[in-house]
Amino acid sequence: MTEKGRVTLPIEVGMDEEIKELMERLGADAVRNSDGTELPAVASELFAKVYSTYFPARGDNDWAKSRPLDRTHFYLMSKRIPALTEGELVIDVMDGYFAQQVSPDTDVDVTKMWQVIDRTTGETISPSKWSLVDDSHVKLAEAIPGHVYTVNFFAKQMWDSTQMYNYITNDWHLDPKRCKEMPYDVRIPETWEHMQSALKQWCLEHPEVDVVRFTTFFYHFTLVFNHVGKEKFVDWFGYSASVSESAMDEFAKVYGYELTPEDFVDEGYYNNPFRSPKPQFLDWMDFTHRFVTEKAKELVKITHEAGKEAMMFLGDNWIGMEPYGPYFPEIGMDAVVGSVGSAATCRMISDIPGVKYTEGRFLPYFFPDVFNAEGDPIGEANRSWLDARRAIVRSPLDRMGYGGYLSLAVQFPDFVNRVEQICEEFRQIHIQSEGIRPADAPFTVGVLNAWGKIRSWQTHMVAHALWYKQIYTYLGVIESLAGLPFEVKFLSFEDVENGVPDEIGVLINAGSAGTAFSGDLAWGNTQLVTTIRQWVADGGAFIGVGEPSAYQQNGAFLQLSDVLGVERETHLTLNTDKYHEVTTDHFITADLAEAFDDGEGGGDVYALDENTKVLAMKDGSVQIAAHAYGHGRAVYLSGLPYSSENSRLLHRALYWAANREQTFENNWHCDNIYTEVAYYPSANKIFVYNNTEETQSTRVHGHGKVWTAILGSAGSQWIDLNENPGEAAAGDNPVSAII
Amino acid sequence: MTEKGRVTLPIEVGMDEEIKELMERLGADAVRNSDGTELPAVASELFAKVYSTYFPARGDNDWAKSRPLDRTHFYLMSKRIPALTEGELVIDVMDGYFAQQVSPDTDVDVTKMWQVIDRTTGETISPSKWSLVDDSHVKLAEAIPGHVYTVNFFAKQMWDSTQMYNYITNDWHLDPKRCKEMPYDVRIPETWEHMQSALKQWCLEHPEVDVVRFTTFFYHFTLVFNHVGKEKFVDWFGYSASVSESAMDEFAKVYGYELTPEDFVDEGYYNNPFRSPKPQFLDWMDFTHRFVTEKAKELVKITHEAGKEAMMFLGDNWIGMEPYGPYFPEIGMDAVVGSVGSAATCRMISDIPGVKYTEGRFLPYFFPDVFNAEGDPIGEANRSWLDARRAIVRSPLDRMGYGGYLSLAVQFPDFVNRVEQICEEFRQIHIQSEGIRPADAPFTVGVLNAWGKIRSWQTHMVAHALWYKQIYTYLGVIESLAGLPFEVKFLSFEDVENGVPDEIGVLINAGSAGTAFSGDLAWGNTQLVTTIRQWVADGGAFIGVGEPSAYQQNGAFLQLSDVLGVERETHLTLNTDKYHEVTTDHFITADLAEAFDDGEGGGDVYALDENTKVLAMKDGSVQIAAHAYGHGRAVYLSGLPYSSENSRLLHRALYWAANREQTFENNWHCDNIYTEVAYYPSANKIFVYNNTEETQSTRVHGHGKVWTAILGSAGSQWIDLNENPGEAAAGDNPVSAII
């Protein structure tokens, strides 16, 4: 087939001929500028849509300067300062912060917008007992020696966090055209008016632009720098920079109660997603989501009225947009684009409801850090594609694209060849599947945590797709699910506490103790544990990863230890003797050729008694356990970093837990775990793909038949079942050469 | 010198000549039988004291059988049983227990002495809602589906735990003379009368015995077996077997409130020493300690009246004796003997106040498990001696001895030769030191936990000196201290919350989060943290090991994070960027030649800011940190398994924390960390000893002088400073050949 399209190319000035040739080769039907660069004139001559970045809440620094009170704000906390002597204690709130980014705001009612808290007792100190020495020093008249104090302070954001990062990283101080862009707050009526008129004007001035790519809208995720201008605190989900005095006033009117600085500062944890969310914070999210989507809707309307599409970049100023939030579909956004760092981040984009299309930015960016003599751009492109393809098969992105400097990429012709192949393979998934998702999910998997739907595919994440030692063990669950043949829903504890939805076949609770992902105090809720116990006992299924249902109470650390058949050793049960026998031959571990890799593991875990089948152990601790519970089943996994081995293990664990292991053999799967298969009933085709950069021979099982395929590095194969019905027996049936 | 004595030899029948020869060679001045064996007639002919084991609360099985109601009792908990359907729930309390050991006692008011608890809500179920089906089944009329229930049940102890273990292990069922010994409770007046008269009679019948070695008195530590007769639960400090209906009644009279079964069962944790002790349990310990010591005092009196000494074996039925408890000295016990498994267990015996002498049982026992062709009895003897010697130097045991079958040991003449050397070296420590402890402690170290003095040298222990993966990381602190030149006190949080005692130079808090050793909720006490902060700020010193002061509250996990300069990553601060620079050149780590071994470590730990000096890191986590705090200092160590390296590290950390590092060089120490030195001012001698089985060359520093010694495997050297004044400069001064 020769259909083209679905691909966006970054272009730049001075390479018009190469652009035309590459458009043809890659089948690109859209072009875009890179952030902060201009589109070349050739753009409007191409038979392609033209995207252009647009920043509603920064970029017009003349406006910003003319409105010094319109800065967006942060709520921040000073260091924890102990009082070591009797008498006065002076706290420098700016100690550890970057003065070019953060400016304490004392033009407000500080008795309301600032707070001094005794962190030894948790008490808020009456404003009558402290005062401002100057803009950044608070004096506490009579501190108690031996107590630790903090100041929650309200501060102006003097420099947009992302622009600041780019400015510092790229030495933009050397470029006289660059300025330090100050963000302005959409809540100020004049600024809001300005945002709308500026967009209208911009649309008029840019007839060549078909798609306005908003980056993003109004409030940046929490990204704060330290006294030497390095990153101090980053929370890709953080709402700390969405605050203002007027917003807090409005909130009080709508929700009937007032928030305090501490509701944002949250003991210094700033309501990060690992914290079990407090009702106040959930209310604030709702409030901000509602407000931001209302305003975004207006800008989208202006965009549409100008005859352009509105596209949202999932990042930067995306706070309050919440693509899985209740108000998002009302915006009428045409598209969402986001960076694809893994299968999970791919699904985070491709599953977004309420938009016409989704687009993934693939790696590597055409930047000098990869495109140099030592770099491996082809390898990076392959790995990015392999990660993403698993997700795309299950839930296709509508479009793909790259970013960076095209002039750099064309110096690597082998890379361009590989990208050409990837673009074609991407299109073929849409063409061959006839636009219908594969239908081989035997049931829906529910991922259970404190956040539920609003953090779909966004769990255990600190800063987008960055690796952290403490999260990869859990992210692997999500990464596996992103490419496995199951429907996946993200459920909150509230969603299930009065009954698990009918469609759910298996509930997964994965996370470390004391976090929102494991659940922490949610498991102290009798209603929740009672419902889940009954549901499992009635034939449901529960998979716990790491420290599932962890909450020390009433003689158990894992509150569902009776369901899981295992308990965590917290050093309170060292006196209890543990006897373990490992069952090496089990359905769940049947494809596990080597020792189970559980990443950082789930701490010391032991089986409660001989009714728990232990399937893997390390250093005396249970890594995998299977347990029958009434008519249902439970599986414990100590951790599940992503790998083909672990993804298959989860695949099997889900079948076993759901009491469907008898059906696994004839359900669609490959015997070679480094390959996967998707089945498309209406097209009557299967798609087999190799998740590795080595050649793989695999046997595809499904419908009682077997197909054999040999797939080259990162290769894939469409098999039309009308043409190739497979073999009923277990014989070899090579349907393809290496591709 | 040719002085003899201080050594006890186990003897047996049929080897009279060998006994006499060995008595001479080892300088033994006492002999003993092994548990359960008779003394040979030769005993009374020897110029030696004769010890004999004696069991007050078991052994007379005719008496036991005649008094079926006099069994000692346990409080035990059934398994946690979920109700999975509506209606009745029947719980088999004996599921998982050994019927030969445990017999549910239903001859009591079960509505008071048994309890059914809903472990989902924590509520105690009214006795009107449950009933006994038979002796071991409880029926709950209306269980709530999805809730988990347990039964706390009162049970008779039908078989003494240690005798049962020996019986099963040694196949005593083949020996018709052996019976299963049933324990009887000293609280029963008739049994108490019998105990006294039996001891009187026994003393009369055993004129050859000089020392009655009580094994021990009345209540066994908690040791419960499972349904197949294997160990199920072991707590060397457990009081679960000290209960009875009359004791509980008496308790209520004395303490003014009633205890419930749950006060003993403690959610199934049975108040094990890793649990932060509840006031009720501390009251029960006090109550039992008072009662047991009163009764023991009477038996000691009978012993003395018979012209014999009373010796207590620290083990088996030692519950309530509490050698560091307030009432222990009143007993008038002559001696305590215990097994020496480490330096810490050696100090646990040698530091006991209120006795005339202490005696250590050294390893290996003369048993076939070591004394065989593959065994290494000399190696075991050396390692036992090396471990113990460090402690003996600091706080001498008065006597030493071995146990087991002498007939076995004499088949290994090289072993006997080595034991002869060890006995002589042991005596020389007493002779050369002139009975005065070395005087080189610059200050007292306070080990701070929830238990304090009563668990002196007994911290972090599950079952005497047994190794557990979860404890060795912390036991190393105690093991190091047992041989380091500091005075050591064990302090409870109550001991310091209103002020740290003057003598304390450094406080150490070592343990894992959520345990009594770290402190758990004690750190939620404002008074405690305030006092310690002020004390450190005023020039005190705090060393935290593992998860010190851990208690999640008010934005901190380590409540003294401001003092320590580090915080534990509990996944709530992943969003905070961490910047670490390792200082490789520091006083504390000056002798650390290789990577620091922190055992299981203390989890992910990070420095709060650049004021914290990070001295060692692993996998991104701080292992050693030093922090100034006001006029004081703090050190964090992620773990400290015992080794010569880590003992030296602690030695230095104590000096640094106490702000005395300037004095270290001239205070007594060896530059070779595998050797140690003790200084005896009144004798004007130093004792240098090699803690390894390899030859070590070392330079001893002290008083501005230097001495050089070369010490053979496990060797030691006394240096008389009058004869050898050392060299002022750093020159070589070999004072000894290999010995």
Write up this protein.
Two copies of one chain form a homodimer. Among the domains of chain A are: 7-55 and 190-221 and 277-432, TIM Barrel; 444-664, Rossmann fold (3-Layer(aba) Sandwich); 669-720, Golgi alpha-mannosidase II (Immunoglobulin-like). In chain A, 25% of the residues lie in helices and 25% in strands. Chain A has 18 helices and 36 strands. In chain A, the strands form nine sheets. In chain A, strands 1-2-3-13-16-17-18-19 form an eight-stranded parallel barrel. A seven-stranded mixed beta sheet of chain A has the order 21-20-22-23-30-29-28. In chain A, a hairpin with a 4-residue loop joins strand 32 (675-680) and strand 33. Chain A is globular. At the A-B interface, strand 15, helix 15 and helix 16 of A face strand 15, helix 15 and helix 16 of B. Chains A, B: Residues 445-661 form the Lacto-N-biose phosphorylase central domain.
What is the structure about, briefly put?
Two copies of one chain form a homodimer. With 739 residues, chain A is of the alpha/beta class.
Notable traits:
TIM Barrel; eight-stranded parallel barrel; 739 residues; seven-stranded mixed sheet; 36 strands; Immunoglobulin-like; globular; homodimer; 25% helix; alpha/beta; Rossmann fold
